[in-house]
Design goal:
homopentamer, 289 residues, mainly alpha, 78% helix
Chain lengths: 289, 289, 289, 289, 289
């Protein structure tokens, strides 16, 4: 689990626990927590929410989503800047030595999606075939990620619903069995617990994780879009500078400035080593900026 | 009914029942359930919800949806992998013996949609005609599935609404007839029952089933998209390896890896039997992976 | 009003009335209903909802919508199968005798949209002109239907809102004037009545009728799409069998099977009478199925 | 302000006031209204809602929206039928005397959008340039109208929200200062007033006006679409009958029938005066209907 | 922070504070505020909402959003009219002296996006390359702005949610510890505070700021769209008058009228200085208006 998710959830629980303890009589009061544990309430809230989710989604997808969630939450997220650098250097090599010379580099790559795309270029597939295959695959990756988010959203929707159902159950039971005032209050307190469980689970766990999965998925899709564009530009045989200018449009301004500074230094070195390219390469970035 | 749906609903009911019993005085208390049965409350909640749904949708569609639901919930879901294998072997046969040779195989197929698509190829229809007919049909299948989901969503929306209406009815009657304290409590308990019925029906039955129908529909549509692509590729006369690479983009990575392993073994056998194809077939998958 | 809408609303009211009566003291108790009539509450709920709708929509559209609603709810819904049969027979006649021979048949048609489309074919308009006019008209029919649904949805949104406003008014008045306990209870009961009126009107009348209008509109649009396709195919001079295959893709599987059986019988007869067409007509349906 | 909006709001307020008065002790009771005025409650509800809207939208847009609202609510709405008639007569004149002859008529037109479009035709701009300019302008008109609707929707969302906040404030103050029973009831009544203000403002004023703005905007956009089509058809030099048939597809059936009857009479007159046009003009509407 | 946002928030707080004070016993009562401060309630509401947002979004984006928010809220917003004037004068200069003559002007520009676009024109890049790069960048700017809005919407969603959770916690604790009446009321008052905090933060701060960010983003995107269009028109070498007519379609009518008046004066001057352009330039705006 990535550190922000973990810290966010832990600190959230601690702050709310602190808020509960400070409400006690004298200073911090640990006995307050006794009011917040009730096993039958947990059965109703979480049992109901999980079973509704199991009806809603095939079992394989419910189990699979925890794998996706874990993978997406831990994955450090590849650097777009790194991918762009790889493409620029592949582009330079391909221009000098041809696509077949890339085979060794490609085999060593970690990114499975990029490796397969580049292998198709080396194999001499045409652009339409490559674009078609890679975009179909991207669509399906998005689809699978969306199912993962949907399952967490379902958990975050069913939890408060069964919390509310549990509270109604508690009220019905309390109203039926009421004898003295104290029992009413205790009954009410227990009845409200399911609403508390459901809301905490939804707003501190399920819905924020669904949101994080969405963000992570968008980042992964963006990197894969850069890869598809890079593979197609590589195959079309553009100059490394054009490759770079095209892919850098995907960067945020801050990242682009850093990349430009680095690249400028590198380019000056290169300019000393090899003669300038013909026409297309006179990029805006190389003009006394 | 498929097993997860059934188990999910049953376990959900049992867990909530257990939660109710554990709330009783001593250990597990079966008399608690007496508080949860009230016939007039059921009339109001389910009678209202079903009648509102009957106004909302034509009777034929309301009746038809249970058929669709049953079919979609039981259908084992055809394997995409199996469909792809069928297309690859049809493709090999068609290359050697022509489309007319496929007629025997096609007639034995279970999948009605695939059989009719292939029959059009054998009949020599042109690609636009085939694509047009199959895509129009797909659109209408989607439309019918959507109506099915909408009806369950309507039931899941009207149930809590009439549950709420029932509770208001109960409160009005209680407030009008109140004499002693005990009667107020009993009246409140009965009034809350309709909200309980409505929420349980919506969140444990109708909305999760609507969700499951959506999932199943997406799976069926995916398979039909693979079939349309396969039929059109077959008609265009591509090599079996191109057919396979194209259709495998629709698989999840796990399924693709399994399929690749299997295919590699098969291909090595084939390579021993027949000479390699010309150019297009040098797929990335056949390179020492 | 079509029978399901009427029955649904009536049975819904009866079931809820039965639920109310069964809540009474001994068996069925008609005096319970006295609690549910209050004229000022009706003024607030329905007066408010109708006035808000009149601000929201121009008067002419609010009045017009009841006409649309009535027309759409009563119209028996033309049969798509019948439309397809008409097109196939027109197609056969046009092939033998030319478009001008259709003039007599066209003048006798009930469907105004189809008649005007076919008249344009007879008048020799070109395909783009016909498609353009018919599709613009279809867009505007959809637009008008959408306004009808929106007005019922507005009524179904404003009713519970003014029901809630009425309840708050009732509570404020009750709290200001409270003297003895009994009066509080009676005041509460009256205050809740507006919420009851608003919810019943919304969930048993307005929202289900909005839903039914949507369904009916979709059916009408589908038939008009079949007509546009049929008119354009007719004008392009396709064979009757191609016309039939194209239009049948719009049918549900059940309807298609019935139509196929019928058509097969007819085709066998026809085959005995006239020589087979050239190439395009060797449909999949005519092959030993 | 147009009359329906004004009448709707006035009648709505009167009906609800009547409902309040009829709830009093004997017949109609004007002293009931004293319960519904409280200055601090108004400060909280409307002050909060207006300030939140001022944070949400730039000041210039909030001020501008009342101008748009006023203009859109008063504008009588141009008649689509009139616009079509103008185009047909311009078309006839242009055919006989050329585009330059239109200059005098165009200068006298009220509709600024139509005048500028026609002026571009007279100036000899090409079709792409005209379409581009007019469609860009249409997009921006839509955009500005949408901002107007959004501001009213914001007011209609923030009003009940601050009404609810006011009620919570009232409850907190009441609970802190409670001494005797009567004070509790009075405190509750005052606390509920903000909810009442917020809900009335939202459901009787802001949201219905937002809805009316949307309707009016759609009507204005439709007329502008007819104008764009008319200008482009005029420039392409079509026959007046083709112009008419094309633009009438934008009319509702009722309006179209009226227009057809009128036009038929006019056409018969014209037919007596000038020889029939060549081919394209033999419209369906001119055939013995 | 821009002045409207600041004033709106301040006045909103003051009005609500005034409403609270006026509710006191005699005139304005400052001691009322004591009821609205409670540290544990703040911990639960804001601690919970911020932690949930930190789980939902990567830390870098949560921190970055305050920078975006600050930048977007303070930026005076460039004038579209000014941008259009710059493009017209660049266009005139380019026509007379060629693109290279623009280099000095371009280097002095403040707008980074415009400067880079124009530099590409000077560098002789082709139109597709320029459009592609600028539109990709625009898409990503929109994406980053959207993340900023989403984070404020998340804060505005989680705040009332944790306010509600805090109130349930307060109720559970109160019900468990109740001894005398006064304590119940105090407990209730404290329990409601979290709902008050959550609602105030959401409706007076987070959601309106999210709305303002959306507006500002739309303005910035509009200006960037004008710039892209201007850069592409400049590169295609159109006449200054065509440039002006095209870009003015993006102005609101009020701004356009002001611009037209100004431009007309300028044009009359220009007409005296240089001979009229050939054909395309005889704009509608230059005809005796």
């Amino acid at each position: 689990m990535d550190i922000t998710t973990f810290i966010g959830a832990t600190v959230g629980f601690l702050l709310i626990a602190l808020g509960i303890m400070l409400r006690g009589a004298g200073g911090i009061d640990f006995t307050q927590f006794l009011a917040f544990y009730n096993f039958p309430s947990m059965l109703i809230t979480f049992g109901g929410a999980i079973c509704a989710t199991l009806i809603n989604y095939p079992l394989s997808q419910v189990l699979g989503v925890f794998k996706i969630a874990k993978k997406v939450l831990t994955e450090p997220g590849e650097s777009t800047v790194g991918i762009i650098e790889q493409f620029v250097s592949l582009c330079q090599k391909a221009r000098k030595e041809g696509f077949l010379a890339l085979e060794e580099d490609v085999k060593k790559m970690d990114n499975d999606f990029m490796r397969r795309g580049l292998q198709m270029v080396i194999d001499g597939q045409d652009a339409d075939f490559i674009r078609n295959l890679m975009e179909t695959e991207l669509t399906f990756i998005q689809e699978r990620h969306k199912v993962g988010q949907e399952i967490f959203i379902a958990l975050g929707t069913y939890s408060p619903a069964f919390g509310m159902i549990g509270t109604i159950i508690g009220l019905i039971l309390m109203l039926r069995n009421l004898q003295d005032q104290a029992q009413i209050a205790a009954g009410m307190a227990v009845a409200l617990l399911t609403t508390f469980y459901g809301a905490m689970a939804a707003y501190l766990i399920f819905l924020p994780i669904a949101g994080k999965l969405k963000r992570r998925s968008e980042e992964e899709i963006l990197i894969k879009e850069v890869i598809i564009r890079g593979v197609l530009l590589l195959q079309s045989g553009v100059a490394p500078s054009v490759m770079e200018a095209n892919l850098q449009a995907y960067l945020s301004p801050a990242l682009r400035k850093a990349a430009l500074a680095k690249e400028k230094a590198a380019r000056e070195q290169m300019a000393a080593e090899k003669p300038p390219e013909e026409g297309t390469a006179s990029q805006q970035t190389s003009e006394g900026k």
